[in-house]
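FAQ: What does the model actually see?

It sees only this:
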Amino acid sequence: MGSALLTLDDLEVAGQRVLLRADLNVPLEHGAIGAPVTVADDARIRAALTTIEELRHRGARIVLVSHLGRPVDRDPQLSMRPVADRVAELTGARVTLAPGVVGEQVHSLTEELAAGEILMLENVRYERGETQNDPDLVSALAELADLYVNDAFGTAHRAHASTEGVAHRLPCAAGRLMETEVRVLSSIIDQPAPPLVAVLGGAKVSDKIGVVSRFLEIADVLCIGGAMSFPFLAVQGHTIGASLCAEADLEPARRALAIASESRCRLELPQDLTAATSSPDGANPVALDGVDIPDGWTGLDIGRRTADHYAREIAGAGTVFWNGPMGRFELAPFADGTRTVAQALADAAATTVVGGGETVEALRRYGLEDRVTHVSTGGGATLELLEGRELPGVQALLRTVAVR
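And it is asked to produce this:
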């Protein structure tokens, strides 16, 4: 026996109340005193539109639920009002904001919904039981709908009431975004077009040691950049100056190097770096010929030779996964490595998958977001799936199937 993801194709939604869990945790713009709060970046809302519009087209009555930030009690600054307004603008649908998350009044509003209309629940984290997967909250949410659809891949690694618990109380399925994320990311593990090249950057090795180890098992080449590279360089005996390198990252880096020595995967570390001789904000960039950083200096980007080498690896790949910038790309003197990698992905003939907030931000900054195969909406969920961990929000949407 095996398992398969339940999808919208498995549900008859016409006339049904569908509790749709989306990831609408968007940044907000707080203007002048008295001015309405607005959505600063609607990318996550737009990512959910495919599922929303299909459900509307098929005659569903949509009860939309999401979290927004980390509110303490009912923080009015984290109300779903601006999100509801933006959903209405993008869909042209009637979108009503519920006065709360659950309760008799909210239940009555779900009963009044017409086909194609949307009731947006208030911030689900207004309810303390959300993050605890509280059974009472799960039951109250389940009473608001006839069916459940989870399209919030970015929270699929959390076993919360609205992301996992309610899936066990109602007929359920994955939304189109969730379906795509699971399919694309699983294909990197199960059937990547060779060679598979992974590019990992960002900060802590300890946060990504699981995915580093996984790629050392399945990838052909693993390129390390960003502050992640400094623990590797340090345990190899290089001087790293004042570069970011936590003590807790040294042992994971040492273990990864040991795994790499026995792996068929080629682990690539920076050959040269760009460093700063003062604090980053007033930095004086210096291109180093190697990777040894003088005392007091800070490494803030991979060097030109390294960037070109990583770009060549990407150009020769069949599949590429990239997570984490190569340096402090938000500062112009230290953007070259990240920009070069981003451009290489955009130019590659390979299947290219990008995951992680800062990585996506870099793609957008360079106008390259539409030139990669898939931009994942997950952060931790993306990495945990690639590590091979079971995601509670995904596991709850699986059905058992016979394997011939």
